[in-house]
Each structure stands twice: as C-alpha cells, then as structure tokens.
Amino acid sequence: MSEIDRSGTAVGANSLSKSYEPQQFETRIYQSWLDQGCFEAKDQNAPGQNAFSMVIPPPNVTGVLHMGHALTNTIQDILVRWHRMMGDNTLWLPGTDHAGIATQAQVEKQIAKEGKGPTGKPLTRHDLGREAFLARTWKWKEEHANTITGQLKRLGSSLDWKRERFTMDEGLSQAVREVFVRLYEEDLIYRGERIINWCPRCQTALSDLETIPTERKGHFWHIVYKIVEADGVTPVKNADGTPAELVIATTRPETLLGDTAVAVNPDDERYRHLHGKQAVLPLLGRLIPVITDSYVDKEFGSGGLKVTPAHDFNDYEIGKRHNLPFISVMGKDGRITPAGGSYAGLKFAEARERVIQDLKEAQLLVKTEDHALKIGLCQRCENIAEPIVSKQWFVKIGPLAKPAIEAVESGKIQFSPKSWEKTYFEWMYNIRDWCISRQLWWGHQIPAWYCGHCQEVTVAREAPTKCPKCGAAASELKQDEDVLDTWFSSALWPFSTLGWPEKTRALETFYPTSILETGFDIIFFWVARMIMMGIHFMGDVPFHKVYLHAMVRDEKGDKMSKSKGNVIDPLVVIDQHGADPLRFTLTSMAGQGRDIKLSVDRVENFRGFCNKIWNATKFFHLQFDALKDKGVGIPADFDAEKWLLGNLPTLLPQNRWILSRLQVAIARVQKGFEDFELNESAQALYEFSWHEFCDWYIELSKLPFREGGDAAQQSIYTLHYVLETVMKLMHPIMPFVTEELWQSLPFKRVVQKPATIMLQPFPKANAAFTDSESEQTIAALKSVIEALRNFRGENNLSPKVEFPVRYRAGSVGADTFIRLHSADLQALSRVSKFERIEGDHGGGSGGSSGEAIIPLTNPPVELRISLAGLVNVEEESKRLVKEIEKVSEDIAFVQRKLSQETFIAKAPKELVEKERKREGEFVAKRQELQAALERLKALVK
RNA sequence: UGGAGUGUAGCUCAGUGGGAGAGCAUCCCCUUCACACGGGGAGGGUCGUAGGUUCAAUCCCUAUCACUCCAACCA
User: Fold this and answer.
1) Among A795, A819, A798, residue whose Cα is nearest residue A807
2) What Å value separates CA A724 and C1' B33?
3) Which of A870, A799, A852 lies closest to A830, judged by CA?
4) Which of A31, A385, A391, A628 is most deeply packed, by most CB within 10 A?
5) Is the preceding omega at residue A512 within 30 degrees of 0, hence cis?
6) CA–C1' span, A69 to B35, in Å?
7) Distance A211 CA to B24 C1' (A)
8) Which of residues 36-75 of A have CB within 7 Å of strand B?
9) pLDDT-based confidence at residue A847 (cuts at 50, 70, 90)
10) How far apart are CA A584 and CA A385, in angstroms?
11) At a CB cut-off of 8 Å and minimum separation 6, what does A858 contact?
12) Which nucleotides of B are covered by protein (CB under 7 A)?
C-alpha cells in the first residue's frame, strides 16, 4: 500500500527558513514521534518479521547526560532506527539505575546542608532513620529522574518509553529477590567472614572492582624483627654468633600491629636456621611464628615478609594456609581498634606516624627509602579503601563464570573489537567471589532474616510471617540491614526488564537481545555479570554481539573531567548547534579502536553540512514552485522511482549520472551499518551529498531548469527522488533534520503509516540505475571544467571575467562531446563561448603566441585561451613551468618503472600496458606545454 | 611485569600491495539567481625509526622507539 502525500504538509520553499535552525523543529518533531507511537515495539512479531532488541545501559537515575552517554546513545539509536526502517520489530528499552552509593551520597549531602543533628554536627541519615531517609531518597529520585531521560530525548533517542524501567521498581525488585533466593538455594550465595575492601568514609564494603588501584609516592620502611627460640626469650644465633634477626621492608608500617607471623621462602638457605622459631613483633612485643611459604620471593628485599592476614589480600591467603590468627587492628571507623594496644583510637595516618616514630626510638627502623606504592581508592569518594576482614554476603562466582567463559570461547558471544575478548578471559579466569552486600540504605535490601530466638538465617522471596526454623513470631525476625551491590540488579537487566520471572510474551520475543553496545570500562562490572546471570537464569546468553565504543576525550586527548574544566556538555552543544550535527560528529569519529577527541569546531563543520542539505532542499522547492507556476503538472499517484526507471534511456546524462552514483552511496551506507562501521556510512553520506549531489548535480541541473519543458520535468523528478532517498539514508544518523525536510517534500512516498520518515523502508541499491556511460561523460565534463577553474584560480581571475575558449579536438568524439555539452561547460566554468579550431592537424605545434594552452587527455582536447587583456604573460609562464615540472616528474616516475625488466616480466600485463599508455600521454602533454611556453617567451622578447 | 591499541599535512582523523586523502586552520579570488553555516583556487606529508618479503610497501613480516589504555599478589 502506498499513498502520495502532496498537499497537506507540502510546503513551498518559502516555508523553509533561510537556513538550518534546529531549535525551530527538534522538540516538535520528537513530540510528534511520541504522539504517533513511532518508538513502540510489538510484543509479538508480525508474520515473517524479525525482532531486533537492545537494552540501554541504564544511566544513573540522578545523573546528567555527558558525552559518553551521547556517544553510546547515538550509536544505539542509529542501529535501532536503521533496523526499524528495515522492517524489524524493533525494541530499544529505556531505563535508569538506582546507583546505590552515588544517589545515597547526594541525598546525604543535601540533608547535611539542611541542618544540625542533636550532637551539633550536620544531619546524617542516622538522624532521620532508615524509613524517613528512604522516603527522602525516593522523592529525590522522582524529582531528578526526568533530567537524564529528558536529555536522552533531546538527543533524539527513539526509546520505547512505555516500557521504561527502573532497577528498584516493583518488577525488578521481585526479579532481584528471586535471583538471590535461587542462588542461595543453589549454594551460590553465602554469607561469610572474608577480607574485603572497606571504605571508611562511605562506611561500606566495596567489591574488588569498586576500588581503583592508584599509585602514590610512599616509602619503604625496613623494620627489624628479632628472632627467639620457642621459649620466647633465648635469642637465636647466626652461624657467626651474632643474634639472628629478620629485616622486613614494608610500605604500610602501621599494619605491623596486626602481624601474626613472619614468613620466609622454604628454600631460602639464609634463613634455614630460623624455621620454627619465633619473631618478636616490634613495639607490641607479641611473639609470632616464623613460617615458610613459597609465596615469598627470595630475591625481593631481604627475603622476609611480615604477614598481616586481616589487612592484606595476599596475607589473608597465607593466613588461611597456615591457620594464623586474624587480628583486626584497623577498624571500620578508620581508626585503630583496641587490638592495636596503645595505638587504639588513632586514625590510620596518625598511627603510621606514631609507629614510625616509636620504631626509630626503639632503633628497630634500619632504613627508609622512597618507594611508589599501590593503594586502593574508593571509586566513589576517592578516599583510601582498606582491606579488612568482615562478615559479608558473597556470590560464589566460579560455577557462574565457567559457562560465561565458554559462551565467548565458542563464539556464541562475540566482542568487537575482538581484542577485548582477551581482557574478558583474563578477568574471568582469575575471578574472585563477588562481595554483594553494601552497608547502605538505598538499594535492594537483602532478603535474609535472622531469628532472635533460634539465631537461624532465613532467605526468602517475601518477609516470613514466622521463623520457619523454630516457629518464633515475626517480631523475633529481623531483616538483614544491608543492601545489594547496584550491579547485582543491573546484571539482570536484559531479562528483568522484559518481565522475568514471569514468562512474558515480550521475553519470548526479545530475549536474547540482538546487540549490546556499551563502553569497555564496564565489561567486568556489567557485561560479564549479565552474561553469567543470563546464562544461569534464562538458559541462554543475553546477547550475541558486544560492541564496545571508544572513550570521548577533549580535543587535546585528555579525559573530560569537571575538575579540569574541559567538559564539553552535550546539551550546550545541542542548544547551540542542534542534535543532528552532534550525532553526525560522534558517528563520523566513532571508528573502533581509537579514542574520540571531540572539539566543538568539528560539530560546527557538520552543522554546515546540515545547512547544506537544508539549502539543497530549498533549491528543490524553488524549482518545483517555479514549474508549478508554469503549469507543469505531476501525475496523480506519482512514483518517481518507477517513472525514472521507465524513462531511463531518455534521461539527461547528469540525471542518469546522479542516479548511478546514488546506488554506490546506498551500498556504502548499508555496508557501513551492517559491518558496524558507522563512520564509513557517515563518510559516504557526506561525500555523496556534498561533493557529488550539491557540488555537481545541482549545478548541472540549473540549465535544464532554466530551459524548462521535458528537461526540467525529468530533472525535478530526479532531484526529488535523490533528495528523498538521501534523507532516508541519513535518517538513522540525523533524525531531526531529515524528518523536517522529508515532510516538506511534495510527492514523498508514504509506504508505511504514520507518515514519518522514520518508518519508511530503508533504501536498497538498484543495479538498474547503474550507468557507466553517464559516469564517463560526467567525468569528462568535470575534467574540462576543473582545468578551466584551475587556470582561472592560478591567474587570480575573478569569476566575473568571462572569456572565450578555442579548442582543438583530438577525435571526432571529443568534438561532439564539447559541442554537446558546451552550455554546461560555459555555465560551470564561466566561459563566454567554445570555438572549434578548424583544420591544422599538425599536432601541438599550432596556435598563435599569446595563448594559454591546456592539454587534456580525457576528453582528448586542447583548450586555448587568448591572453590578451586577460592575464599577464609572466603569470601564465609560471603556471606553465609548474605544469611542466609536474608532468616531468610523472614521466620520470613512469619511465623508472618501465625501465625495470623485472617489472615488465612480473607485473600484471594490464598494468604494464597502462603504464606505457600513460608514458605516451605524459610525453605528448609535456611537448605541448613546452611549445606553449616557447611561444610565450618569444612574446616577452 | 603481562596484554591491547595508536603513531599519516600545523591540528583532528580517513585510507589502500601499484604514483598519499578529508575536515579545520593558512594564503589568494569571489556576496554568481540553494547555501558566506557558501563557491573557486593554492600551499603543506621521504605515511614513527631500522631491517625483511615482493617486480612494487604507507599498507604484509620482524625488530625498535614514543604515547595511551587495560589487567596485575612482589611485600
């Protein structure tokens, strides 16, 4: 079914503003898409239809759009719009993430500003209580959620808003509880006392991923541990009779308070006599065993290692291997615990100073040197996170990781660029159990209840009405106060958003999703965990392709950050230049494997591109209106493509040419989208629309339009058809401007209702339009025009100055060519007339002095321009000399090649032939140029 | 320490086994009836360095340097 719309919305050139002004229409157009339900997917595919689905990487609900969002959402929107136009049942599902720590921190900051608590300190969440604080946070969420979603709309994202989800909405919370309970029942979730990263400032546990290893300048302190016999008193002697001691270097001297052993390598001969002895812990005097463990590197430092199992991940492992006591000296409050003796109550940094001071005084510090150390910073607040031992909930990750590894190994999931697979494997092979409990309030509270009566734990989907273990009343049960890591709920995103655990139609239609597009910085946080959860709970991978885009940086290549003040705000850019230019810029730079260095200059350039398209459309309207005034009619139910195909042989060469070139553009754009090389598509569109369509086609169409009649009519059809096709091709990348312009077209085809470009079929290349003959003709035309423009430019001739050109044709065909196209040639090169030189078949020797001579090979003609009154002879001589030099270089190059026997023997014959031919052409050209130069010289004398 | 990526015109980036391209910036000419958010012309690069394969290398291989990112248990 098709319908021609050529009245209602058809607007003349006058209705399009003078230039591209995106502010005039972007918001209106987005609203019209929403009103018409254009973004909505169907739960069930139509017969023969494919589903295409993607989930948005949910931005933080209280976040603000940054360039990274702009990039990922532009890319995703392109894919989605393209698939929609290809006829797929297309779902792009929106939503936001509750972002536990980030959101809670913002609300805490707000209440702190509001007043003082009972102790006179700023209000904290504890002053409000859990319930009131959560109410505040929900309110905050309601107030801020629209910010980011509104910004996504400004960008043009065609998300199915009716399906918008939030990681803490009822459905997703149910999914979270379901997953937690099932994993618990399968022994894949457990609660245990383990070493974890703790942020003393945020007062919560963090996963390994949430601490950023950072290099800081520090020191190596060499500390003496004296060695005694088992009795704890008698010094052990070295072979030479001196008292045995172990000098151990550390970057964190304060941790010695929690040392429970010192270790040496079992094969270290130097310390064999210390095996089984005791070390005296400096300052505290506690006796700790000397143990042997192959983890210790003999070559490093003194070969001795202090072991602090409660505050170091490696020491923790050693401690477990050797059944060492775990002494927690660093408390959750950031201060030394009572186990730290006289250091108790000191902040960690203070304790370090005191320990060093005391060691010095006890003469146990033998050396201090500079050393860089690695510390873990809290991802959120950038304070130092300390490893401490604490009771937390964990996901036993090994059994989940195994199939997730296999999915990528087998190619069931493919990463692009492929190199990221290596990174993925590396992490997955060495994955550690995932600490999922957080000591926060904002999040999914852990569905575990502790019975005050029998002390048992109950994990359940809903709050139990009595203790299932001992039958105690609900009042005895207390729910775990902790909440889950935010990423726990995001891991379920591809299926929880589609209604899981219910078996919904949507789930059936859209899972697995087609593609995941995201940043490489969340491969571990998000991608890997979605793969694990998807396979475990859905029995299938959540997606088959993972596309990872680059990072957006500023024009100098620095990371954008508020503190550096180099942030380019996408919304400001959209306000100033429009969403389409920003989208086009990001797309054209989104080649994989390279960071995107964004500059506003670039956006301005593409704004110029939008303006160019805008004005090309205005040109169409101008011509169309003029034709209408002359009474040139358009047949009812007009199908331009059909008409053009039917009348192909009678079309003007430029019309056939642009139709032919259009097919190449369509193929390039399509291939770019298929291969996920969106920058290729963008480039193809840019080159075709600007440099072929605008630069040449529109210029060449002006004559037929002036001429009127059939020539004008077929040209207006061609112009319309090409414009409409280009609009559709560009639409996925630049949705707004293409919709606005498409709506203005008088006989656009509405194949699919509602009448919006975003639902019309994406163009397909049609070989019937391919036309090598017209391509050849226009190439020849361009070469004559360019030669004349070059002559004009080199001699600084104003376009106002018109001059006649005499020509000598090298063949009958060339003569015909010039005569046939003299009008076009004259118009585009501003030549007053072309005059053929009769007779004189003597080759390049003819012509009077005082003429510029421009020899061409395709078409084989020689152009002559009388210099009298036009240019000064010396200028023209310079141009000639330059030309001659250029040709001479060409000749030398070709001859060098042809003089090599191996080249003649081994290179393809066609190539050799081609080079020979070129040699001949070059030599002839040089002769003519030289002859012209001679005559000019004669003139000067 | 491992892994990956990048190195092409002043800047930002495309690109290909057969003589190096675009946009911006620079210089010159133009308000010519779609567009000065424009048109035309010009200058500018031994395609990081050194070897190798090939008739032919900016492209393939090897080494090397520089920068960037990722993962790391050397206290």
Assistant:
1) A819
2) 24
3) A799
4) A385
5) yes
6) 33
7) 41
8) none
9) low
10) 42
11) A779, A780, A783
12) 2-6, 11-15, 18-19, 23-24, 28-32, 34-43, 54-56, 68-75
Strand A51-55 relative to strand A89-93: parallel, antiparallel, unpaired? parallel
Segment A476-492, tens digit of pLDDT: 899 999 999 999 999 99
Helix axes A772-794, A653-674, angle to 10 degrees: 100
In this structure, are residues A326 and A313 in contact, taking their beta carbons and an 8 Å threshold? no
Ramachandran bin of A513, using left for φ above 0, alpha for ψ from -120 to 50, beta for the remaining angles: beta
Across-strand partners of A748? Answer: A5
- Encoding tokens for residue A406? 């296999």
Q: How large is the C-alpha radius of gyration of chain A?
A: 38
Residues in chain A: 941
A711: phi then psi, degrees, rounded to nearest 5: -55, -45
| Cα–Cα distance measured from residue A76 to residue A543, given in angstroms and rounded to the nearest whole number | 14
A903 touches strand B (CB under 7 A): yes
DSSP state of A593: T
206-235 on A, CB < 7 Å from strand B: 208, 213
Q: Which nucleotide is nearest to A21 (CA to C1')?
A: B37
Instruction: Report the 10 Å Cβ neighbour count for A458.
Output: 18
Strand B–CB A556 distance below 7 A: yes
How many Å from the CA of A687 to C1' of B22? 9
φ, ψ at A392 (rounded to 5°): -140, 170
- Strand B within 7 Å of which CB atoms in A 594-613? 594-597, 599, 601-602, 605, 607-608, 610-612
Question: Closest Cα partner for A527 from A680, A408, A690?
Answer: A408
Structure-token match 């929107």, residue found: A77
The dihedral region occupied by A623, where left means phi > 0, alpha psi between -120 and 50, and beta the remainder, is alpha
The answer to whether the C-beta of A387 is closer than 7 A to strand B is no
**Does the CB of A249 fall within 7 Å of any strand B atom?**
yes
Give A846 CA → B21 C1' in Å.
Answer: 38
- A67 in Cβ contact with A568 (< 8 Å): yes
pTM for the whole structure: 0.91
Give the pLDDT confidence of A585-625 residue by residue, as tens digits: 999 988 766 788 888 888 988 999 999 999 999 999 999 99
- The rounded distance, in Å, linking the Cα atoms of A334 and A320 is 25
Q: A459-483 b/e with 16+ CB inside 10 Å = b?
A: beeeebeebeeeebeeebbeebebb
Q: Which of A112-126, A192-206, A897-911 has the lowest mean pLDDT?
A: A112-126
Distance, CA of A880 to C1' of B27, in Å: 21
Tell me the nt nearest to A252, Cα to C1': B75
Q: Where are the beta strands (DSSP E) in A203-257?
A: 204-206, 211-228, 245-250
Listed as own residue / partner, the contacts of A685-690 with beta carbons closer than 8 Å and 24 or more positions apart are A685/A726, A685/A729, A685/A730, A685/A733, A686/A588, A686/A609, A688/A661, A688/A662, A688/A664, A688/A726, A689/A609, A689/A612, A689/A613, A689/A616, A689/A726, A689/A730, A690/A609, A690/A612
- Tokens 């037929």 belong to which residue? A704
- The amino acid occupying position A919 is E
**Identity at A714, one-letter amino acid code:** Q
What would the mean pLDDT of A845-870 be, rounded to a whole number? Answer: 79
Which nt sits closest to A796, CA to C1'?
B29
**C1' of B45 to CA of A890 (Å):** 18
